[in-house]
């Protein structure tokens, strides 16, 4: 068989690729991850009793804005990692910007607060369980994000796994905000970010193993 004939034969068996396959896979992963986290919140933790009242305050929406902004940045980064040869671009900046903003706000609050109240602003009443709760709530999104990636073509599995972990942690922190009673900016600037980072580190470690072609 001639080379041209072989190429033509192979090309004739290629099915067209859905241009929106990445968007569809990650839309499904987001829905499954968020639904799983919310189900765990409702059945295992409970929605905070004063949610209707606290939702009228700007601080509550600022608290939600942190994981929501990180979710957007992590989603963009993860979808880029799912495509071979795609540049990361400004995805890292989208992740770093909300972190810098909330740290600046937290530092300003701590510096202007009385010295005796600074520890309570950082630790609150629930710092011991915050990390574990966010990590637990991230499990559905972590699984969904890795399943979405496995059906695609990430060429940098360690970075792709880390991005998927950050995505899962952001989803978990967003859901956890509906239960968490802590409203001090220094608290969620520290513990929410650490909670989001945990699945990110786990994803970085597992990426080469779970996303191997």
UniProtKB/TrEMBL annotation:
Name by which UniProt lists this protein: DUF1109 domain-containing protein
């Amino acid at each position: 068989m001639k080379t041209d004939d072989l190429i033509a034969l192979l090309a004739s068996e290629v099915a067209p690729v859905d241009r929106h396959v990445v968007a569809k896979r990650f839309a499904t992963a987001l829905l499954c991850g968020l639904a799983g986290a919310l189900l765990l919140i409702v059945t295992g933790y409970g929605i905070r009793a004063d949610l209707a009242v606290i939702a009228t305050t700007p601080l509550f929406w600022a608290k939600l804005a942190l994981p929501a902004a990180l979710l957007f940045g992590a989603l963009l980064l993860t979808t880029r990692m799912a495509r071979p040869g795609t540049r990361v671009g400004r995805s890292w900046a989208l992740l770093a910007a909300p972190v810098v903003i909330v740290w600046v706000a937290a530092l300003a609050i701590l510096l202007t607060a009385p010295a005796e109240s600074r520890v309570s602003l950082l630790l609150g009443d629930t710092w011991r369980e915050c990390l574990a709760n966010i990590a637990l709530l991230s499990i559905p999104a972590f699984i969904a994000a890795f399943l979405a990636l496995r059906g695609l073509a990430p060429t940098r599995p360690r970075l792709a796994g880390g991005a998927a972990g950050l995505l899962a942690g952001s989803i978990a922190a967003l859901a956890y905000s509906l239960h968490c009673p802590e409203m001090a900016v220094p608290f969620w600037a520290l513990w929410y970010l650490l909670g989001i980072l945990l699945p990110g580190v786990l994803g970085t470690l597992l990426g080469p193993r779970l996303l191997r072609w």
